[in-house]
Design brief:
The chain is about 25% helix and about 40% strand. By secondary structure, it is α+β, with helices and mostly antiparallel strands. The protein has 2 domains: about 1-70; about 75-120, no CATH class. Helix 1 (about 80-95) crosses helix 2 (about 105-120). The longest helix is centred in the C-terminal third of the chain and has 18 residues, at about 80-95. The two termini are about 35 Å apart.
């Protein structure tokens, strides 16, 4: 699920096998409240952030427990920097793919573009 955070209440800390954990009650605009844990005394999100959440358990006596994470980005939400990194990765893959073959530079660029479109989910390489 995904919703905007409306409140974050500290609930104390406890010692776990990975060190000190901090508990918070996080309330969402859609009415869901969860007890979540973080590794720092300040969670990596704030009131007003739209976050994805998952209910892991919902005990009538102790309430719902779960986890909160950044929403997954869709292809249309990728930043220019993300696309630049993907394009560089595709070019590197095409160069490595063609390293032992004697092909024209233009062929490497064509394959890099094909790999890039595949990374974006716009092309199925297996259709070729």
């Amino acid at each position: 699920m995904q919703s905007k955070i409306t409140a974050i209440e500290p609930r104390g800390s406890w010692e776990g096998k990975y060190g000190t954990m901090y508990s918070f009650k996080v309330s969402f605009e859609d009415g869901q409240s969860l007890e979540v844990n973080a590794k720092s005394d300040t969670p990596p999100y704030k009131v007003g952030d739209v976050m994805q959440y998952q209910v892991l358990s919902d005990d009538p006596k102790f309430g719902a427990k779960g986890k909160v994470s950044k929403p997954e980005t869709t292809t249309s939400e990728r930043t220019g920097r993300d696309k630049d990194i993907m394009r560089q990765t595709a070019l590197k893959a095409a160069v490595e793919f063609n390293a032992q073959r004697q092909v024209e530079t233009s062929r490497v660029i064509i394959e890099a573009e094909m790999f890039y479109k595949w990374l974006l989910g716009e092309h199925d390489i297996l259709e070729q």
